[in-house]
Specification:
Helix content is about 35%, strand content about 20%. The protein is of the alpha+beta class. The chain has a domain of about 90 residues. The radius of gyration is 19 Å and the shape is globular.
Length: about 130
């Protein structure tokens, strides 16, 4: 079965990847690839260790598993429900000129510039930051 194509507005300019991607799709792919490449950045992992809050029994396996405290709401949960957040956002990446500043923010060397948040808390913080920038 062929892959379903995204519907685009008639005014969308396909300028990347042999005219199959928009500029926004291209830079989104670059941004996501960079984030994945630096997912295990040591200062960010140090922030993860600092958020450890003991262990609890995992209801799925019956075994003890580490739990972590959310820096925003203070609740404790398993790592699957958490994400590492840059306290100072990495920001947008929409052009080649923004690559170096984005990488500087993404790969901050100070572990105090990272915090662990629930996925929902992280999304709420991100949305709030986007609103204030508009």
């Amino acid at each position: 079965m062929p892959k379903k194509q995204k519907k685009r507005r008639a005014t969308t300019v396909l300028s990347r990847n042999a005219q199959s991607m928009t500029e926004a799709e291209y830079w989104s792919k670059v941004r996501n690839t960079l984030r994945k490449a630096f997912a295990y950045w040591k200062p960010a992992q140090e922030a993860l260790k600092q958020a450890e809050f003991g262990t609890r029994t995992n209801p799925k396996t019956g075994r003890q598993k580490k739990v972590y405290r959310c820096a925003l709401c203070g609740e404790v949960d398993f790592i699957e429900e958490m994400q590492i957040d840059h306290i100072d956002p990495c920001g947008a990446l929409r052009s080649a000129e923004e690559v170096a500043p984005f990488l500087e923010r993404l790969t901050c060397e100070d572990s105090s510039k990272y915090q662990l948040l629930h996925k929902a808390c992280h999304q709420a913080k991100t949305n709030e930051g986007r609103k204030s920038n508009d």
